[in-house]
Each structure stands twice: as structure tokens, then as C-alpha cells.
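Sync notes, pocket subgroup
Present: LS, DG
LS reminded everyone that the earlier model was apo-only. Rerun requested with magnesium ion included. Inputs:
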Amino acid sequence: MSQVIETVDGPLTLGELAQIDIARLKGVGDAKQRALSEYGIHDVLELLMTYPRRWVDRTNQQRVADAFPGQEVLLVVEVRGVEERQMRNRRKMVNVRVGDGTGSLRITFFNQPWRARQLTVGLVIAIHGKVEDYRGSLQMTNPVVDLIGDRTGRIVPIYPQSEKVRVTTWEIAALVEQALRRCDSRGIADPVPISDRERLGLVGRFEALKAIHGPDSMTAANDARRRLAFDELLRVQVELVRRKRELERTSRGIQHVVGGDLVGRFVSALPFPLTTAQQRAIAEISEDMGSSQPMHRLLQGDVGAGKTIVAVAALLNAVEGGHQGALMAPTEVLAEQHGTGVRALLDGLVIEDGDNLFGERPLRIELLTNRVTGQDRREVLAGLADGSVDIVIGTHALIQEGVDFSSLGAVVVDEQHRFGVEQRAALRAKSDEAVPDLLVMTATPIPRTAAMTVYGDLDVSALDELPPGRTPIATHWAAGPLAEANVWATVCSEVAEGRQAYVVCPLIEESENLEVASAEETFQRLAASELSDLRVGLLHGRMPSAGKEATMDAFRARELDVLVATTVIEVGVDVPNATVMVVLDADRFGIAQLHQLRGRVGRGTHASTCWLVTSSDNVNPRIDALVGSTDGFELAEIDLELRGEGTLMSSAQKGRSDLRLASLRRDRELIERAREVAFRIVDEDPELANSEVLRSEIALLLSERDGDYLTKS
Ligand code: ADP
Ligand code: MG
């Protein structure tokens, strides 16, 4: 290693560090190398990028003699004895005697039998926890334990440990220290220009690496983390911005003539004023559509935020200049609902037509799903080909099958998560000349910064405001059989008032068959007992689509009072008279899903309620969240927090991912800054010709998989 460092000039790059085998460090023999490799460390870069899980701040450390019952303390102690005991309930208890020079205490671990193997006599450990009094002597129960070994210093880094891998946290710390010392003479290359660093208050990269592994203070540790997290985010953003710019350069869009009066007439004919958020989104879309680059925009808004109006405005922008618009939904049922909704919105709207005696004609809107067949289908297809159909509504199959458009100008896609890159590519291939503008609508509330990262190649418009006058949905938690009985009583009284209700059956992720069986059982039970006086229907995914449609029609027509269903009703179902949503075994659902389900009610003028039923009364933070908030964006943030998605990709990605430190929740501001800097860098230097360090780091650290994940989601 010393060779490499001495013969080459300039600061060490991450690429160079990645080429230095870990075995070249002093003290790493064959056995240690194998262990390190199992741990995931093969080279010096991987070593330096193994960041501490946390730090033990020994400036807060206390002496055992000074600790008293009731107090939260950090103690650094030596293990003096370990004893394992079987309890009456066959569980194991581990008692550990520990002490420092000033006194001793007992630690009791319940349900952690492995502690008996982990904690051996002589080991030095840091323990954090609350001191208790146990028959006159001091005790701690299930404290947080960090093995700190012979590490001294005020702040001790604690590295991730697993039971299998035999590398201790202090061994890693010592190797990191050695590696950093050897880098000292050349330093480590920093891709972020000094001016940005100063403006954003970021410490230098080498300083940050030293401080994250061996900080002088907790402030220094946090500054270091922030700097290194910024590096991760910058790499991702530069890559995304580069792709976005490349797409813009290489594809030509349609320069729509926006600002005509069609959209204005549409808006003024609405029975309500637009929300500020809708106005803003329409303005952003119109600006995109008027430019010569194809639009790639994500429209996100909570359930009921009024996305359809915005989508229709986009379609009309295209129609006004003589192009066509297409609206695509993930399922036929949803396409039909959109068809009905959009026709109603555009009813009576005319467009200019020079060939027509009156100088104008009504808009032509057609539905194209698999259920449109024979002569009807032929007419729609002909109308699309000759340009007489202005707006077509269908499923994603619209662009995938050989449908011929005269001039497709704008495409709106409902529900992003089912519209992947392949479909986007198909869309681009749809037209030999200009690429139609694309608007993707999603009701999945994604925090803005997450959207910026996950959909980094799309621009984002957010409808972050609900139309006024909605009666908020009151959400209650019903725990246990008594509370559940009360729920059914509420359902009956709402029905007596003329309202309708949904009952959603337990989610069984493992098997749709089981889920269907459970829905059937729930249906039988409710229809025979609690809801026997009501007209109850059943809806699930295994029913033939004609059966599903018949049931939905009956519910819409109020021939059914209660609809027992699986999560098939999660998207799009819109029955304003339904005011009660009951979710059974609600603790089996995630926050986002519960929020989507709840969005099926609260669509009319009557006050709505949502009952989250659980069989146990164990506190559940997801249910608490739903009870406490109806704001989808806020819930999305809580969701991220609860799932512990500290780092962006922890759930989607295993193995070497570049995003180790950056957190969607904590680093919101940093994501925005990284995106700004990325735009500036890429716009000044699209191929990164002058940013060799950054370019090679992206190539080195951002795997193909990271990139794909980012655009595919
Ligand atoms: P989303 O698709 O975002 O869930 P929709 O577009 O289906 O929401 O709109 C939900 C309901 O709100 C519809 O009945 C729609 O007519 C109504 N709506 C939309 N915008 C407004 C507005 N600005 N003021 C009042 N009601 C609105
Ligand atoms: Mg909608």
C-alpha cells in the first residue's frame, strides 16, 4: 500500500482506495482476511465506507459508584461473571455480573440467550440503560450493550456486528485508523468544489472520513455524517439529472400551442373554483407542453385531491392544437370510471373546426377497452387513425397494441407504480417523429424529497391541498370483540340513515386463495349474524369480471347496503353515498394501504367514518398514525420513519448500495441541495468531462441496480 501512496501524485481517489487489498494492512493475515471478506470488506475503500452504526459518547460516562436507581446511565464496565438460567416458562434468562474500579452491578437479559455466548469474562462493554434496585443492589434489565474492547478516546465508534462474523468493532476501528493514517500524506480527493462546500457548510471529505470514524465530539460526528451523506446523494442526483438531460437532448417533443381558450372554457364551466395547487400544476404542465422538449412529469396528490381535472386540462392542451390525448388506467374498471367521469366533465365543450359549417364541433371522447368490440371498436380505431377522436380513455394496452393515432400529443397515465420503464419506452416508440408529452398521476403519497430521488428523472407537481368543504373522515380504532360489536351497530345505524358501508377483510399476503376464503367466511358470518338485516354483497379478486361489475353496479345503485371485499376495492372505487369503512385485522395492513382504503369514503357530503378493527389491544403505531392524521404526505413520512427506512434503499437493495448514510427523513434539505448542485454541474458540463473525480466515483459506486431501482421504483 505504501508503494501506491508514494508513487502517485495528488490526493487518493476512491478508485485507488478500492484497488488496495485489505490484506495489505498490517495485522490482516489469511484468517482475518477471510473474516473481513465475510463481513463485506475486501479493500480499503470498503473498509472506510463501513461506517459506525453509532458512537458511544464517553464524555457522558459515569462511574458505577455514582449510579443510583431510577437513573439512565452510560457505564463502561468489565464482564466478571456470566450465568444462564432456565425460567419457569422455559424461556432463558442470562445474568451478567459487571463492574468498574468503583463498584459492580448485575445485568439481566430476558429472551436474549445468545448473550451468554457473546459476553465472556474480561470483556469491556459499554452499557446504556436505566439502573434499578434489586434487593438492595444495583441492576439493569436488557440494556443496550456495545462491545468497545480496548478502545479509548472520548467517543468510540461502534460498527455493525453480526453473530456469525468474527470481526469485532474494535478490530475494525483499529484497521480504519491504520488506513486513514496511511492516507495522510496524500489526502483523499474531494469532488465537491470548495465554493459549494462553504456555501452548504460541508466539511472536507478527508476530514469527514476521519471524523465519522473517530470524532472529537458528537457535533463533529454529525457534521461528518452530513458531508458523507451529501456525497451519496450528489452521486445519485448527478446520475439522474444526467439521464434526464440526455433524454431531453435526444428526443424531440411537440411544441403545443398552449394558452388558447379551451382550457379556460373548461375551467370556467366547472361548478367549483380550482384549488391553488391545481392552478399551479396546470401552469407547470402547460409550460412543459409549450416547450419543444417532451414532458415527463409526475402529478402526485392524495386521494380526492382533484387530479382528474388537472389531467383533463393536459389533454385539452393537446387537443387545442389539433393533437389527440390519451388517458390510461391500470384496469378496465378504472378506465370505465374515468370514461364516465371525463365525459361528464367535458360535456358541452366544443372546439373550433374550420371544416364545419358552424366553425366548431363537440369534442369526441371515446372509451377503448377489451369490452369495446365489433363495429364499435372499429369505429373508435378508425377515429383515432383519422384524428376525429380527440380523447381516448383505456387501459395501458392502448399504447402497447397496434393502435394507430393520427397525432398523439399527450398521454396521461393513472397510477405510476404499474407503469414501468418498458411502457414508457413503448410510448416513445409510438411516434416516429415527436414524442408525446407524458403525465403520470399517482395517489401514492411520496414525500417530495423521496419523489426527487425515486423519480429523479421526472419533474414533480404536487397537489398538496384538498378542495375545500370536504368533511374529514373520522378514524377510530376498535380493539377487541366489544369494540367490534359497537362497529357493527354503527354500520347498521348508518345504513338506517340511508348510507352504505365497506368491510375490508384481512390481508393475507402469502396467498390470494386464503384471502378469498377468509373474505367468503367473513361475508357468510356477517350476513348471518351482525348484519343479517342488511343487504350484503361480496367482492374479491377471484370473481369473474362480469360478477365483479354486477356487484359494483348493485352497490352503486344502492341495491346493496354493505360491500364485503378484499383489497380489490383499494383503488378507484367511487361511491359518494358510502360513508363507513371497516377494516378488519387492520394491524395486518401497512400505513399506505390503510390510507388508500380509507380514501374510498369521504367522497360525498355526508360525514364519514373509518373503523380500524384489531383483535388485540396492543398499541400499534401504524394504527395510531391513521387515527391521528388524514394527511397522506404526513402519513408517508411517518411510514418511512416506522419502517426504519433510514437509508433510502435498505428494503429494496441488498449488498453494495451507495446509499448508506443518507436518510429520506433526516436529510430532506440535503437532498434538495444535492439536486441543485447536480443540476448546476450537469448543465455546465453534461458529460462531466471536467469532473473526472465525480464521474469515476459514480461509475464505481452507483451500480446498475441502483440506477435501475431509481428509475423503475
Ligand atoms: P383524485 O383523482 O385526485 O383522487 P378526483 O379528481 O377524482 O381526485 O376528484 C375528487 C372529487 O373532487 C371529484 O368529485 C371532483 O369533481 C372534486 N373536485 C376536484 N377539484 C375540485 C375543486 N377544486 N373544488 C371542489 N371539488 C373538486
Ligand atoms: Mg381519481
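DG: Residues 336 and 367 are 7 Å apart (CA to CA).
LS: The chain has four domains: 1-53+159-189, 60-151, 261-463, 473-629.
Action: DG to write up.
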